[in-house]
Amino acid sequence: MVRSSADASRRAVAPARSRTRLPALAALLLAAGCKAPGGAPAAQPPPGPVAFADVATGLGQATDLAFLPDGRMVIVEKGGAVKLRAAGGAISTAGSFPVDTRSEKGLLGVAVDPGHASSRRIFFYYSLSDAAGGTDLDRHRVVAATLGAAGTLDAGSERVLLRGLRGPANHDGGALAVGPDGNLYVGVGDTGCNSGREPEPPRPPTNYFATCLGNGNGKVLRIGLDGRIPADNPLASVARATACGATCGTPPAGTAAPRADVWAWGFRNPWRIAFDPRTGLLWVGDVGEVTYEEITVARAGRHHGWPWREGGRGWPVSKCRETVPDAGDCVEPIYFCRHGSAADGIDGDCQSITGGAFVDGPAWPAAWQGHYLFADNANGRVWSLRLTADRGGVVAGSRREVGTIRGSPVSIRPGPDGLLYVAVLSGRVVRIGPGP
After folding, report:
1. C-beta of residue 275 within 8 angstroms of C-beta of residue 281
2. Which of 279, 265, 288, 395 is nearest to 334 (CA)?
3. What is the DSSP string of 198-215?
């Protein structure tokens, strides 16, 4: 289904938004050691100054990015286009996919084969359009396609690696990451069906897909780079597991054969994921509903709480044992923050999390080493968290605001230079690095 740049239709691109900046008010408050309006304590500064810079503008709705071994940047757009940014900054179109762009759907994720120098493969996650054969029961797919020497995708090279993922509305996922084990990990959302209510007191869910094992929604999936199921996947040798109902609101009943590509479950919308390069742990930014946003270190074969828990609240953690097989109590997030004001020791001002990336390496000063940067795609704020000594969690109270990006930061990826690059939905890519 991939289309080369030669036959891809052109469309209008919204003008780039103005550059990112550290909010002037916050900067003044920090410099003066004052309290913010309303008497709240002033936000603490990050470990050091940072610089934000646009490195690509004039794009369509940028949703994700990745880097080729030669340093070129692959940028994907919600409307289906695949762009290449050369080292000098020139941008070209490599191809496009026939995508459904309704709601949050579209071309949502990209990852590069670690063996790209010889294979030339790039992986994509997209929502197939109705005209191309997509349906609400089989909307999202992961494909591999080959990039030719001329910088265009080979129209005949597309190979579907993963399909059969529901996509009637929102919570479409789109996360792709190649793990240290050489397998491809895929974050898939739960299809929506929101309740619009806080998780406390415990209320019956309106969407059960994440807690059943007969479909791929509300999960992190794991496949080989050729699409095959790894033999050590948690459900690869399980004959019967909790069965899904026909619709999102139908409680699971009985058992059936599970999807063997399921690696972890109990997520709402794990649309941005990243592996810690030092520990190999998979960090997931899971978008919440009306109360909490969370960051979770995912565990193979475990239930991560949704729809029973949001953040660290909701039903008892033992509720996750009510699945077949019993994978233990719900895995709790390592960090969560509230919508609205901070309360009960929980950070506030969150609206919709964009999972982030790790700050390590010689490009960053010592004070920055061992931090994790994440963002909020609704309010544009970028925060840092300090990792614990074993890098299995974050230090309580360590969140610091780094700055604000206008235009919805939707993906944060490390570059070959050790700096971080942010895909901004308004049509830009922003680089974050140390600086004045």
Report:
1. yes
2. 395
3. -S-S----S--GGG-SSS
In angstroms, rounded to a whole number, what is the distance separating the alpha carbons of residues 188 and 210? 10
Mean pLDDT of all residues belonging to the chain: 90
- Identify the three-state secondary structure at position 302: coil
Q: What sign does the CA torsion over 249, 253, 259, 261 have? A: positive
- Cα–Cα distance measured from residue 14 to residue 19, given in angstroms and rounded to the nearest whole number: 15
pLDDT at 199: 84
The string of pLDDT tens digits covering residues 192-250 is 998 888 888 889 999 999 999 999 999 999 999 999 999 999 999 999 999 999 999 99
Q: In 20-41, which positions are buried (b, 16+ CB within 10 angstroms) versus exposed (e)? A: bebeeebeebbeeeeeeeeeee
Cα–Cα nearest to 165, from 286, 270, 43, 82? 270
Query: In the chain, count of helices (H) and strands (E)?
Result: 2, 29
The answer to whether the Cα torsion of 299, 303, 307, 310 is positive or negative is negative
**What is d(CA 327, CA 304) in angstroms, rounded to the nearest whole number?**
10
Q: What pTM did the predictor assign?
A: 0.91
DSSP state of 367: G
Largest CA distance in the chain: 63
At 26, which helix (H) or strand (E)?
helix 24-32
For residue 43, the model assigns a pLDDT of 60
> Closest Cα to residue 188, out of 162, 212, 220, 160?
220
Other beta carbons within 10 angstroms of residue 390's beta carbon come to 8
Distance CA(410)–CA(337), nearest Å, equals 18
Q: Which two tokens stand for residue 221?
A: 């999936």
Cβ-based neighbour number of residue 156 at 10 Å: 9
